[in-house]
Amino acid sequence: PYPIVLVTVADNIITINQIEYFTFSPLRIGIAVAHARYTYGLVKEEQAFVVNVPGATLVDAVKLCGTVSGRDGDKFERAGLTPQPLDVVEAVGIAECGAQIACHVEREIEFEHRTWFVGSVVAARSLPDHEGTSALMCGREAYYVAGGMVSPR
Predict the structure, then answer these.
(1) pTM for this model (two decimals)
(2) Are 19 and 135 in contact (CB under 8 A)?
(3) Could you tell me which of 115, 100, 105, 121 has the C-alpha nearest to residue 37?
């Protein structure tokens, strides 16, 4: 299994499984977004994004945000998620997620069908009861947290 996150930009959410730390000092995180995705244009325009770390209780929202386009309506409303304004970027966070990492895009690395947006971390927060071991992960056939399966894909 690999990490899966909900990335917010402007007022949109996308499920991302291609996320990577690029450097630790300064801290830079990259997300890969396919050129065909609605979110791709939003990140290019806003030059910022927020990585939101969901737990097992948000597996249905993760599935929905990975299959429905933001072009077709408000994913926050459809997924039952609460937008949380942040002071450091235009994008909002997701209040129900255990942790949020706000980034300003510093570099774009283009590939044939997707771009890695590498962001410098400008702020991070976590809920008081958030534990990294409760972060949702994704495998080929199911979603997991440390210790077991949460839901089939």
Answers:
(1) 0.92
(2) no
(3) 115
